[in-house]
Design a protein that fits this description.
14% strand; alpha/beta; 375 residues; nine-stranded mixed beta sheet; globular; three-stranded antiparallel beta sheet; 11 helices; single chain; 2 domains; Alkaline Phosphatase, subunit A
Length: 375
């Protein structure tokens, strides 16, 4: 738990598409890596060595610096048993902590309800993007959905409360038959209006913001700039959520993956530099995850859907280093050509929930799981 009196804040960055584990934290000391990557391989000596066995992708220089400063934890082998290689289902499992059935509540939606049970702050949770992430969904939990903070986010150009209600009613009726009428109507009807109210509150953040940090014009940099603006406005937001897509690298992976990690690494570096400049970094932790890793052997141009992946946790309060074991690359130890997860992702969540947010993780993640001690 943070040692300051300021409430701990969690920022989640979802790497959508299935990030390639082997080319992110590269097991360059293992000859099996190059044996399995005849085409999609990081040239020897270009990796950013963390020790004599593994190194980061060469585009991840800013994250290497955070690792060297002891502010970045790498959690190896994250996933769940009997991995499903569907983007939709796998992400749904990560969002709801329900690998055996379809979940109805997002893990951070439940966490937000515990943090603010009386809904005293309708911007306790802020989601950046054009749609609401399943991880944040829970009945009677407001989430401020912001697509563009500079234009005040979701439907905020519509000032009339009556007009907003009509639009939400139209939207819910359109989707209710496909998803289930009562739940959709109730959730979108009430939470949608609260989300709009939240966006109205958030519109003050850009006007209060001043910084020497120049964020790039990339989508992820602008999202994290928005997170910084809201955090620095002291509006009481405890959970931020955003994503960066494009990690589904079936083809042309070398160039695409390099650009993805360059953009993400630089954006994260700017974000934490910004927060430190304002003495506002000590109560922020960032979690990065992807729905699965990718196949051990490349396909000649890219890599296909896999199983075990990795996560990163970054922040002033993080105990930097590597946690868990890199899964075996030996053919006999693979499942369907994939790395086998050795750490249930719900254990990763449990560390964040209990040791950072101060919540009881068991009812949120639906069980007790091994917790890596990076906080």
């Amino acid at each position: 738990m943070t040692t300051t009196q300021r409430d701990p804040v969690l920022v989640v960055l979802q790497l959508s598409g299935g990030n390639d584990y082997l080319n992110t934290v590269i097991p360059y000391g293992d000859p099996l890596y190059r044996d399995n990557r005849p085409a999609v391989v990081i040239p020897e000596g270009q990796e950013l060595a963390l020790d004599d066995q593994v190194g980061l992708h060469p585009s991840m220089g800013p994250l290497k610096s955070l690792y060297d400063e002891g502010k970045l934890a790498i959690i190896h082998g994250v996933g769940y048993a009997d991995s499903i290689r569907s983007h939709f289902r796998s992400m749904d499992i990560w969002h709801t902590c329900e690998p055996d059935k379809m979940g109805t509540e997002g893990w951070l939606g439940v966490a937000a309800r515990e943090l603010d049970p009386r809904k005293e702050n309708i911007v306790t949770t802020v989601s950046f993007g054009p749609s609401l992430f399943r991880a944040l969904v829970s009945p009677d939990v407001p989430v401020a959905c912001v697509d563009n903070l500079e234009t005040y986010g979701l439907l905020t150009d519509i000032a009339s409360a009556d007009e907003r209600t009509k639009i939400l009613d139209r939207f819910t009726r359109m989707y209710a038959p496909a998803v289930g009428g009562d739940f959709v109507m109730d959730y979108l009807g009430q939470t949608g209006l609260e989300a709009m109210d939240g966006a109205d509150i958030l519109k003050v953040a850009p006007g209060l913001y001043s910084s020497d940090v120049e964020y790039a014009e990339t989508t992820i940099a602008q999202k994290l700039k928005g997170v910084a603006q809201i955090h620095l406005a002291n509006l009481g937001t405890r959970i931020f959520y955003c994503d960066h897509s494009g990690f589904d690298t079936h083809a042309n992976q070398l160039g695409v993956h390099a650009t993805l990690w360059k953009d993400v690494s630089e954006a994260i570096d700017d974000f934490f530099t910004d927060l430190r400049e304002h003495d506002a970094a000590d109560n922020v932790v960032m979690l990065l995850f992807s729905e699965f890793g990718r196949r051990v052997h490349d396909n000649g141009s890219g890599t296909d859907h896999g199983s075990a992946g990795l996560a990163f946790v970054i922040g002033e309060s993080v105990k930097g280093g590597q946690y868990g074991e890199f899964p075996s690359r030996k053919t006999a130890d693979l499942q369907q050509g994939d790395l086998v997860p050795n750490l249930d992702f719900r254990g990763l969540y449990s560390t964040v929930l209990e040791d950072w947010l101060g919540l009881d993780a068991k009812p949120i993640v639906n069980g007790t799981f091994e917790k890596p001690k990076f906080l």
